[in-house]
DNA sequence: TCAAAAGTGTTAGGCATACACCCATGT
DNA sequence: ACATGGGTGTATGCCTAACACTTTTGA
């Protein structure tokens, strides 16, 4: 049987756009190079694949990731020759707020750091095929936002439409039209106003919404 | 390490629409029930995951499948308790012409048979979660046709536009508008006429096309 | 002359973009 | 007053579905 690992592409949302969490490898293969965090599937600990991904990220980030989605599985004889004659990796994507995660080094990782996705997608020095995996994760995430199939559990329970739009724009890396955005939400009945709840700053107060169940 | 298998959801195109290839299981678990064909990953034989899927189908169908695409990976502690304490399956989808494959029983399968996808998708007696996997395969395949990202290598090297449209319609299970279909092909420059090549039946001859490289 | 399939044009509607404009509040 | 973000309306263009119509062959 092959050597089975789980890798997680953690995308982080920040003011400046999408970032990806990378760690610097300590051991071969690709020692010293940057890679997605991951870990070995433990059949004694993990109930299923999703649970394995959650456990691996728990250990690395001491934070239970709210939104995991399987991306792809890669495997071949030559993937990880230093450790096994045949290696298989199930790759997940997670989505978090950058300021809710403090990158701290774990075992077998010299350090964890956020990197802008544009930079990571054009960095040929990443370990394994992780550059391609990051590109895949970013693409899929942006497709989801385009289709407005929002990762429930990731968006806050209450928000103004302006906040929701800003969230989508930061993921997409481009501006959206306010009118079209709101019409789409309304037509598809994706959000519902919370009666009486308003949120005001130094300007006109905004209606607070929640996701339609 | 877990027990690793590869399952293949072979979709077959026939006059009457999409079909899926199912086999009747001989051994536990789910002995006697119908399931997707598959096999164990052999790290001594398979170079990578795609090669494993091709080998497994070679053994079952004595036919090298032209178009394989990974769908998803499922795994848990309880998936295949009769054979292993932890089982993982990488699921692929293939696309073939029904009349090019003669279903013949292989080892550990009492028989192989084509079943219409509509029927399979509502059959609660299929083994494992294979009903869901079939639904996923059908959905993804139809999405590809909708987007006109045709599986090159599956469509014949030369065809008339009528033939191509009929192919898409059989996959989708619904009729398409001739004019819209052709305009889309033309606008996106997906096909190219083969000079001088015409195909005639008992009616007006049609221009023969090939896929734009 | 007719049936059948190829191939073309025309119209109407839905959806997205762009942009203009009013509204309510704190400073 | 005015800057700021909330909220709404309108015009335009693109894509698509629907359908009508002509063309070319064999029977």
From TrEMBL, chains A, B:
PROSITE patterns: NUDIX (PS51462). It holds the Pfam family WHD_NrtR. It comes from the Bacteria. Residues 2-138 form the Nudix hydrolase domain. This is NUDIX domain-containing protein. It comes from Pelomonas baiyunensis.
């Amino acid at each position: 049987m092959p050597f089975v690992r789980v890798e997680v592409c953690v995308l982080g949302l920040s003011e400046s756009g999408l970032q990806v969490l990378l760690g610097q490898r300590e051991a071969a293969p690709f020692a010293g190079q940057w890679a997605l965090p991951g870990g070995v599937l433990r059949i004694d600990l993990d109930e299923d694949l999703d649970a394995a991904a959650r456990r691996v990220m728990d250990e690395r980030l001491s934070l239970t990731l709210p939104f995991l989605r399987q991306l792809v599985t890669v495997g071949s004889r030559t993937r990880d020759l230093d450790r096994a004659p045949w290696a298989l990796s199930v790759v997940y994507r997670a989505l978090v707020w950058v300021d809710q995660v403090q990158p701290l080094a774990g075992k077998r990782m010299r350090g964890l750091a956020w990197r802008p996705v544009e930079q990571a997608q054009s960095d040929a020095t990443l370990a394994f095929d992780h550059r391609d995996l990051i590109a895949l994760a970013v693409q899929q995430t942006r497709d989801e936002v385009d289709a407005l199939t929002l990762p429930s559990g990731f968006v806050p329970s209450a928000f103004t439409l302006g906040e929701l739009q800003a969230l989508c724009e930061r993921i997409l890396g481009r501006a959206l039209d306010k009118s079209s955005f709101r019409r789409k939400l309304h037509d598809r009945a994706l959000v519902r106003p919370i009666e009486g709840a308003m949120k005001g700053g130094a300007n006109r107060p905004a209606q607070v919404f929640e996701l339609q169940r």
